[in-house]
Amino acid sequence: MTIPQPAIVAAAGGVHGVTDAVTSDVTAGHVRHEVWCIVVAGGSGARFGRPKQYEQLGAERILDHSVAVARSVCQGTVVVVPAADVAAESTYFEHVVAGGASRSESVRAGLAAVPATATVVCVHDAARPFATPDLYERVVAAIEAGADGAIPGVAVTDTIKVVDADGVVCDTPPREALRAVQTPQAFEADVLRRAHAAGGEGTDDAALVEAVGGRVVVVEGEADNRKITHPDDLDWARARLAAR
């Protein structure tokens, strides 16, 4: 089985046809935050061999699973898909926009469709269909507690080597200081907009927030929140769903 390559950071210590949004139950004290989620499904599936977001996972597609969970905890969702698929996907989801040439450009396209009233914005990769409502609530709660960004992470079990362009090992960071990062990632809305304003590129949105001086914290991730990258990852996901 192919193991997806997660982002690594150093630690400092739905269904078809359903379109109306639900109100988030996540609150901070007496203040109710308006939480929106951008579900990123704009890729062509180069590593998978075809657009994986439309593959069946049980009775629904991978994309449908991811959007359904986002909608269960957020007041609104924006779904980002390839430009050619916007019309078709708009029959399933209320807010659908065309993605860009890169992941960051796709997130910016989704962010432009998030209303200015949103105070917290989550970004989730559609290829992680097993993220739970509890995981969303953990990252949102960290924003409400004062962080600029909150990302799920799991402990790294492999030894990680830093290598140069010639493949020579430069460093072996301690595993205790590393986390494999997942989505959904949550951000204070104004900070995320500021981070994307310069048009930068990153493998995740937390990297852009970090680049503008934002304080990003790691919350506990989930072992089943794997990213479907290769066909054998989909085999695992189907077996996992069947075992539930």
Could you please describe the fold and organization of this structure?
- The chain is globular.
- The protein is α/β, with parallel strands linked by helices and 244 residues long.
- The model is unreliable at 1-6 and 12-30 (pLDDT under 50).
- The protein has helices at residues 62-73, 86-89, 103-112, 133-144, 189-197, 205-211, 231-243, and strands spanning 7-10, 27-28, 31-32, 35-40, 56-57, 60-61, 76-81, 96-98, 120-125, 149-155, 162-163, 169-171, 178-181, 185-188, 216-220.
Short summary:
The chain has 244 residues and is α/β, with parallel strands linked by helices.
Radius of gyration, CA atoms, in whole angstroms: 17 Å
Q: Quick one: how many beta strands?
A: 15
Please indicate the count of domains: 1
Oligomer: single chain
The helix content is 25-40%
The backbone outline, from C-alpha atoms, is globular
Sheet-strand content, in percent, reads: 15-25%
Low-confidence spans: 1-6, 12-30
- The CATH class assignment is Alpha Beta
Provide the succession of SSEs.
EEEEEEHEHEHEHEEEEEHHEH
CATH superfamily: Spore Coat Polysaccharide Biosynthesis Protein SpsA, Chain A
> Structural class given helices, strands, pairing?
alpha/beta
CATH fold call: Spore Coat Polysaccharide Biosynthesis Protein SpsA, Chain A
Second CATH tier, the architecture: Alpha-Beta Complex
Largest sheet: 9 strands, mixed
Q: How many distinct helices?
A: 7
Determine the N-to-C terminus distance. Answer: 20 Å
Query: What value does the average pLDDT take?
Result: 89
